[in-house]
Amino acid sequence: MTLQQAQLATTATAAKTQIADKVAELVAAGNSAPTVGLVPTMGALHDGHGALFEQARAENDLVVASVFVNPLQFDRDEDYEHYPRDLDADMELVTRYGGDIVFAPDTQHMYPGYPDAPQIRVSAGQMGRVFEGASRPGHFDGVCTVVAKLWNILMPPAPATLRSYFGQKDAQQLAIVTRLAQDLNIDVDIRPVDLVRAPSGLALSSRNVRLDDHGMEKALGLSQALHYLADQVTNGERVDIDAARDIIRSHEHVELDYLEIVDPATLAPLSEELLARPLAHEALALVAARVPPVRLIDNMLLAP
Ligand code: AMP
């Protein structure tokens, strides 16, 4: 089967027109409720992103990817400048996964007048100040601002509806964008995509390439600690967070930043009282640690 090359749109108007045309075609062909699946990304796509495209392709009539390196979500200029950019390769990957449209605007198109714009930005509130937000101030405000703009630009015309795909890998981001849609009444269905792990258990991340064999071994402490907690919850036992933290710390040179059990929707840490008994409700274990030379995050849903 030859795959149709994904169409490129570099302006909001072009993207809206392409989406509207495809929706009109689907309606004319008898589809009374077409769905559009959006996969927002910063590009430099690899097969770890593939899970999002596969799920979006399986669940929707039209698949749109956005590729935009968002300056608002970087806390260091240097990181932003060095972020890998390769639109041709991204177009190829999206095509390979059956995506239809790629929206890839430049910075001045997204934020005319940047860096003096945008004046009006979205705040992620308290959810954006904890965990990853504590070590990257302003990061989640930048994520919310760009995601709200992408939804507004790429919202399909009725009768089509929009679904937006986010990886469970970034659990805090997923919880925050879910709240963003609710709190600002944006008509988008948030679809979480399961975290993709290497056979060793390590969560796939573009940062893993910087780990040598030793680092890979040490990094396994994160997923081992999460599995340890998940097993306790499945077995109806009380969770032992301290023992889980020790699993990570037992690896030399690994610095644990946090390992906490939180409410998956609000990210509020569970109270001592709730943790003193076997968990009765689903909870989320979040972990971050420095495994030199990188900082890794991982998480797992704990289901009784
Ligand atoms: P990025 O381009 O790095 O901002 O990532 C785009 C999307 O891919 C985000 O929703 C991430 O959560 C998701 N993603 C990255 N790595 C993984 C993974 N190992 N498993 C599932 N989703 C992922």
Structural commentary:
It is a single chain. This protein is α/β, with parallel strands linked by helices and about 300 residues long. The chain has two domains: about 5-195, Rossmann fold; about 205-300, Pantoate-beta-alanine ligase, C-terminal domain (Pantoate--beta-alanine Ligase, Chain: A,domain 2, 2-Layer Sandwich). It is about 40% helix and about 20% strand. The strands form two sheets. The protein has a six-stranded parallel β-sheet with strand order 1-4-3-2-5-6, sandwiched between helices. Strands 7-8-9 form a three-stranded antiparallel β-sheet, covered by helices on one side. Helix 7 (about 140-155) packs across helix 8 (about 170-185) and helix 9 packs antiparallel against helix 10 (about 240-250). The longest helix is centred in the C-terminal third of the chain and has 22 residues, at about 215-235. The protein binds adenosine monophosphate (AMP).
Q: Mean of the pLDDT scores?
A: 95
Rg value = 20 Å
Instruction: Assign the CATH topology of the largest domain.
Output: Rossmann fold
What is the percent of helical residues?
25-40%
Strand order of the largest sheet: 1-4-3-2-5-6
CATH homologous superfamily assignment of the largest domain: HUPs
| Quaternary form | single chain
Query: In angstroms, what separates the terminal alpha carbons?
Result: 44 Å
Secondary-structure arrangement, i.e. CATH architecture of the largest domain: 3-Layer(aba) Sandwich
| Largest sheet data | 6 strands, parallel
Instruction: Tell me the total number of β-strands.
Output: 9
Low-confidence stretches: none
By DSSP (H or I, 4+ residues per run), the number of helices equals 11
